[in-house]
Amino acid sequence: MTHKPAQTTVPIHETIANRWSGRAFDAARPVNREQKFALMEAARWAPSCFGDEPWRFIVWDRHHDGAAWDKAFDCLGEWNQQWVKNAALLLLATADSRFRKNGKPNAWGAYDTGAASENLCLQAAAMGLVAHQMGGFDPDKTRRTFAIPEPFQCMAMIAVGHPAPADTLNQELKDAELAPRMRQPLTANFFAAEWGRPVDA
Amino acid sequence: MTHKPAQTTVPIHETIANRWSGRAFDAARPVNREQKFALMEAARWAPSCFGDEPWRFIVWDRHHDGAAWDKAFDCLGEWNQQWVKNAALLLLATADSRFRKNGKPNAWGAYDTGAASENLCLQAAAMGLVAHQMGGFDPDKTRRTFAIPEPFQCMAMIAVGHPAPADTLNQELKDAELAPRMRQPLTANFFAAEWGRPVDA
Hints:
- Two copies of one chain form a homodimer.
- Chain A has helices spanning 14-18, 33-44, 66-73, 78-84, 109-126, 139-146, 171-178, 186-189, and strands at 55-61, 89-96, 130-134, 152-161, 190-192.
- In chain A, helix 2 (33-44) packs antiparallel against helix 5 (109-126).
- The first copy, chain A, starts with 13 loop residues before the first helix and ends in a 9-residue tail after the last strand.
- Chain A has one domain: 3-Layer(aba) Sandwich (NADH Oxidase).
- By secondary structure, chain A is an alpha+beta fold.
- Helix content of chain A is 35%, strand content 16%.
- The radius of gyration of chain A is 18 Å and the shape is globular.
- The mean pLDDT of chain A is 97.
- Chain A has eight helices and five strands.
- Chains A and B meet through helix 1, helix 2, strand 1, helix 5 and strand 5 of A and helix 1, helix 2, strand 1, helix 5 and strand 5 of B.
C-alpha cells in the first residue's frame, strides 16, 4: 500500500496516522479467517451509548461466497465498482435507530456505528490491509436485496483487501491513489473553550 | 488505569483492545499541550463522506480556563458530574447535518463524527490517558451556553485525563470501574452474507 502518513503538528499513534482509504486491491489474495474475525472483533469493542452496540454488519467474502459478494457489489455506484471489483471483502455497516433494550429512538445509532467502522478500518490498517468506506451505494436496493429491517439505516459499504501497487489502477484512480492526503486546518474544526475560537488562538 | 483488555476470539490491535471508558481521573494532573493537540490531530485525520469532515469539537481545559470548563461541566447530568469533576479536559463533539461545500443534508454527519471521536479516544488510550464519552448531558443547554449554530448536532461530551486508582471513586463507581467489560456475542451483530445469519454459521 502506498505509504501516506497523516501530516500532523504533533506525533500521533502510528496506526491512526497510517490509515487511509486506498483503492488498489490485490484481486487474487483472500482475507483469511483470522483477519476477518479481527476486523469484526475490533468493531465489536467500540464504545456505545448505554452500551447498546447499535451496529449490525453484513460481511461478504468473494473467496467464500462469490454469488453473495456479487449481489452486494451490484448495490454500489458505478464509479466505486471500477476499483471495488478487486476487493476480497465487502461489508455493510448498518445503524439501529432504536435502543435494543426498550425500542425508543437512539440518537447515537449512526454516531456509535461510525466508531465501530473506524475501529474496523484501523484494525485493517494495523494488519496491512486496505479498508475503504463508501457512501456511494444504493441504500434502498441494498435494503431490498438483503431484507434489512426498517429500524436499521444503511450507513456505509466497506471494501477490504490486501493492497496492490497503484499501477494496477487506471490513470484517474492512480492519480487519486498517489495524491497527498488533505484535511482542513486543525483550527477550522477544533475550538478552544467557545464556538469558533481556533485552538491555536 | 485498570487494565481491562477486550476479550476477543482472535487477537486485535493492542490500542483498540485496551481502550475502555474509565471514570477514575487524577484531578491534579493536567493534559499537556502536546497531548491535547495529539487528541485533536487523531480526530482530524478520521475518514469522512466526500472528505467533508463534518465534525466540530470544542475543548475545555480546566487547568487553562477553569471558568469555561465549569460552564461545560454544568451542562452534564448529575450522575456524570460525580466523576467528571476530576477530569482535566472536557470536549464536545458536534456533527454538521449539512455538507460544507453545498449546504445539502449530510446523512453521514453523526456517523463520521463518531469515527473522529473514536480516533480521539484511541489516541488517548495510546498515550495512557482515560477518555470517556457521554450522552448524559443537556444538548439544549449546551447549545444555548456556547451559541452552537443550528445545523450542528451536539453528539457527545468527552472527559479526558490521567488515570487514578479505582479507590478514588465512591463504592458504586468503583464497582463499575472494576467490573468486567461486556459485549454482545460476535454472532449477534455480525452476519455472514445475509441479514441475521451469524458469522460462525
